[in-house]
Specification:
411 residues, alpha/beta, Rossmann fold, Dihydrodipicolinate Reductase, domain 2, 2 domains, eight-stranded mixed sheet, six-stranded parallel sheet, 14 strands
Length: 411
């Protein structure tokens, strides 16, 4: 049978896309290890790793990532643990140390990639209010195997690198030293937005505000990572942060009233919220008993703020102004707050090609910034709102990452 030329072109394109697909039958699944603090229903371990086992929609009906979870190390096994039953059902090997999970008991690296998911579990809290997860301990075990084996494989690290600036820098620098392909971050930066917009690359940003809710450590990181995802797109890329300061109580309202935090940006972000108690910045004090603002001063002069407004909002939203725009731009982050929590599916879609190629979907520098910003902001708050200088962030990076509105699979 002869096909017309346009149809032949379409068939060739379809064949090319199929060949590049992670579902291609010609590619063996990558063997990956999971190092997690806790594996219970709806934990980060569950909503990320269980997609490898149960398809990306967690129901056996969705796309199957071209990954094979071959081993697990679980730091805390509690009564509601899922890892034991999943191991039995899917043939996953459980190990008592992180190193054994990477070597499969052989003494040498025996996996193609690593998920390090240190979120959830019973761990101490620092003086600044951060949960002290064993991130450095787990990554040390990973790098010990890499050193002994003389090679490294890609590592995805869920959320921020560490709860302190010193440990975040150690993590980043150790990965650089050993040439470990490293990717980290949050699920909220790559998921749905309403409206589906982004900061135009090389915009002359004049202001940036992110509205947040929930606990300051866990959710504050998400908000700061979203802030950094937008800030890094400005003219010149990321050139560094000079200082961070936290405001609380009336100091937040005074900052808005004086336009230190631009009220028009706060209101532009408020109108994107689904169930905001108010869309007026001057009216927020009626609903928010304990406001907190993280103020970030970038080295190029950009001023940005994250406002946690518990009681008035329950979404993340962002707004910004640029010299080339007459009006602020803004959007809301849309999450799926019930199973299958498909925003984590969108994250896994970004992780999978990284594990295959060693090229992160976005630079880990972004998460280094967000990790240090969070530590500085919470340190400022614990110290009565003092300005915390950030010489560790006298550094620059650029990214080619481009946000795209995901499809509605599983939604």
């Amino acid at each position: 049978m002869r096909f017309p030329l346009p149809l032949l072109i379409l068939l060739a394109l379809a064949a090319s896309l199929q060949a590049d697909s992670p579902d291609s039958a010609n590619e063996e699944p990558l063997r990956v290890a999971g190092l997690v603090t806790l594996y219970r229903q709806n934990s980060h371990a569950d909503v990320i790793l269980s997609r490898i086992l149960k398809t990306e929609t967690l129901d056996g009906q969705g796309r199957r990532p071209n990954l094979k979870l071959v081993s697990l190390y679980v730091d805390q096994v509690q009564e509601n643990d899922l890892s034991r039953s999943l191991a039995d059902e899917y043939g996953i090997r459980l190990f008592s140390t992180p190193g054994e999970a990477l070597t499969l008991g052989t003494g040498k690296l025996a996996v193609d990639g690593v998920f390090l998911i240190a979120e959830h579990g019973d761990y101490p809290t620092s003086r600044t209010g951060q949960t002290v997860y064993p991130k450095r301990r787990l990554f040390t075990a990973v790098t010990d195997v890499f050193r002994e084996s003389g090679r490294a494989v890609p590592v995805f690290h869920d959320k921020h690198l560490a709860d302190t600036t010193a440990d975040a820098l150690w993590y980043f620098q150790t990965a650089e030293e050993l040439k470990v392909p490293l990717m980290a971050g949050t699920s909220i930066t790559g998921t749905w937005r309403e409206p589906p917009i982004d900061v135009e690359r090389d915009s002359e940003l004049t202001g940036l505000v992110v509205l947040s809710y929930g606990p300051l450590d866990a959710y504050g990181f998400h908000a700061l990572e979203l802030l950094q995802t937008l800030a890094e797109r400005r003219h010149g890329g990321e050139t560094g942060v000079a200082s961070v300061r936290s405001l609380t109580g009336d100091a937040v309202w005074n900052a808005i009233q004086s336009d230190l935090i631009p009220a028009r940006l706060v209101e532009a972000a408020l109108i994107r919220q689904r169930h905001a108690k108010t869309t007026s910045a001057s009216d927020l004090a009626r609903f928010v008993r304990e406001p907190v603002a993280f103020q970030v001063r970038y080295r190029d002069g950009l001023q940005a703020s994250v406002l946690t407004l518990n009681g008035a909002i329950a979404d993340w939203s962002a707004a910004w102004s640029a010299r080339e725009d007459s009006q602020p731009q803004s959007f809301r982050v849309d999450l799926q707050d019930e199973s299958p929590y498909m925003h984590f599916g969108h994250l896994l879609r970004r992780i999978e090609p990284f594990l295959q190629t060693g090229e992160p979907s976005w630079p880990v520098d972004r998460t280094l910034f967000s990790s240090i910003l969070l530590d500085a902001a919470l340190t400022s708050r614990a110290d009565g709102g003092r300005t915390v200088e950030t010489p560790e962030l006298v550094r620059s990076y650029r990214t080619t990452w481009q946000w795209r509105q995901p499809d509605d699979v599983g939604r």
